[in-house]
């Protein structure tokens, strides 16, 4: 009996020692090296053909073809060297990375184009002067920057309390009620409203109140708040639902009223996510052009008063610079690119502020 067990063990050891412990793998340089080689080959051939035919050199088409060929080549090499399962795994990984590159490439191209076009006018004059009396070179976008900040901040002051209180009612008070389903339905409808419709609504509202031809920054804030409210409601609602029910129940067990539980337990816990949602809503509306063009108008002069007269904003400044070019057209185009770059920097700054506030709020909750 003992001899039989020892013999079986020796047989298993022999079988295990004969089996390969490590399967064949492609060298680490093969994927990147093959991609670079195929891209250089196809793009180079295409460039030579374009130069020989006196055509502009195009690289986008050959680059896409090179990537497709590279995917097939990597799969074939992996199938021959590594086997069917690893080849399929490499194919899926390659497709995922290719999709990521395709998604990021337009964003990188957009940022690069705006930076190249706008960096020339990002000087002190651009940030310290308005366009009053300027018909050619010079001038700046100070009036548009101030208008954008005032209109957007006032829109946030309108929409954040309304959106946050609506989300609190939906999650904490209105569970299972018909009015809650109606509110959720209308919030979803508002999410898909085109921005031009919000602008026309605000224009009609102030037309009835102030009469025809009334344009001011406050009307622009109202139009933007219509676009912000559904985003704030939805983001805040999701964050409030993520708060564990155990925290609420523990607070109720201690005899704490519901309103105090919401203000002292639920809101502080959900604050990082709520802050991020609010900043995303602001970033979503800060670049809107159509509603502001209708209700806020445009002006070349400084206007600090939201309630009196037209107020220039950065999106309208960019639009007006492109569409109403003067005698020195290049000066207007340069100002438009600089305004677009400034708008992107404002959005980036808002997102950085949102991250900082979220991290600070998480630290305080812990």
From TrEMBL:
InterPro entries: MetI-like, MetI-like_sf, Phosphate_PstA, Phosphate_transprt_permease. It is found in: Cell membrane. GO terms for cellular component: plasma membrane. It comes from the Bacteria. GO terms for molecular function: phosphate transmembrane transporter activity. Keywords: Cell membrane, Membrane, Phosphate transport, Transmembrane, Transmembrane helix, Transport. GO terms for biological process: phosphate ion transmembrane transport. Residues 145-354 form the ABC transmembrane type-1 domain. The keyword Transport applies. It holds the Pfam family BPD_transp_1. CDD domains: TM_PBP2. It is a multi-pass membrane protein. The chain crosses the membrane at residues 35-53, 59-78, 99-120, 140-171, 183-210, 216-233, 265-286, 336-357. Belongs to the binding-protein-dependent transport system permease family. CysTW subfamily. Part of the binding-protein-dependent transport system for phosphate; probably responsible for the translocation of the substrate across the membrane. This is Phosphate transport system permease protein PstA. The lineage of its organism: Bacteria, Bacillati, Actinomycetota, Actinomycetes, Actinomycetales.
